[in-house]
Amino acid sequence: QYDPIYLRVDLSLEGQAAAENVQSQLKRALNIDIKLAMTDKDLPPNSRTIYLTHWAASVPDPDNFLALFTGMSLKNPTGWKNRNYDEFVRQAAIAGSIDSREKLYAKAQHILTETEMPVIPLYINTQFCLVSKRVRHFPLNALGFMPFRSVTLD
Questions:
Q1: Which residues contact 124 (CB under 8 A, 6 or more apart)?
Q2: Whole-number pLDDT of residue 79
Q3: 6 pLDDT exceeds 80?
Q4: 91-148 residue pLDDT tens
Q5: What is the model's pTM?
Q6: Is the pLDDT assigned to residue 1 strictly greater than 70?
């Protein structure tokens, strides 16, 4: 008999829905029972815990996500460290060409999500936006920002 595995999730409705989905899929596919924990107080000391968390970029740059998991990042939620990963991210941040940056970030991402996997990206939020045909110059972007400065109506 194994100690229970906990899934720590934030209190948002979206986070809870995602956690319940993960809990259901792990039970159905692997017969693993997962207990949901909505706060750190719900976690027993030294419990085996999976964290379901999110990160939103403030600028559309891969460094916004990848620098988060470097060993020197104060916001690294995992405690994971990898010298090669850190070096790829550091070099990419100062690289002079887009091509060099892409190659270095690809190497770092490979370590993060395929080789060592301290994190597993599960999903990307979707955003729906209904816009009338009369609306012109409505900017849609990957960050979800909607500046209305240039929007006009016909």
A1: none
A2: 84
A3: yes
A4: 999 999 999 999 999 999 999 999 999 888 777 777 778 889 999 998 877 777 778 8
A5: 0.72
A6: no
- Please tell me whether residue 37 adopts helix, strand or coil conformation: strand
Is the separation of the CB atoms in 68 and 76 below 8 Å?
yes
The secondary element (H helix, E strand) that includes residue 9 is strand 5-9
**Burial class (CB within 10 angstroms; exposed 0-12, middle 13-18, buried 19+) of 140:** exposed
Distances (CA, A) of 34 to 30, 51, 78, 106: 11, 12, 19, 33
Residue with tokens 């104060």: 74
Amino acid at 47: S
Torsion angle, alpha carbons of 102, 72, 125, 11, to 10: 180
Cβ-count burial 34-58 (b if 16+ within 10 Å, e if not): beebeeeeeeeeeeeeeebeeeeee
Per-residue model confidence (pLDDT) at position 12: 78
Owner of token pair 């990307």: 124
User: What is the length of the chain?
Assistant: 154
Q: Which of 130, 90, 89 is nearest to 106 (CA)?
A: 89
